Structure prediction request, 68 residues.
Amino acid sequence: MIVIPRLGEILSERGMTQMELSDLSGVPQGSISRFDKNSRHDDVHLFAIARALGVTIESLFKVKEPQE
Prediction:
């Protein structure tokens, strides 16, 4: 299973900046900036970001099955 973060895509779709999301979620802007680049995410940040955006945690990621 390949998990790909898609926070940047969600923010772009909503016309929202990282700073706006930081203000809404309480997650530092630097952590939001690194979200799509990192393979590890703090649990508390995932919940805060999902709650601020009104989405599920699963919606913050794309999941792909590896080719066999």
About this structure: The mean pLDDT is 92. The chain has four helices and two strands.
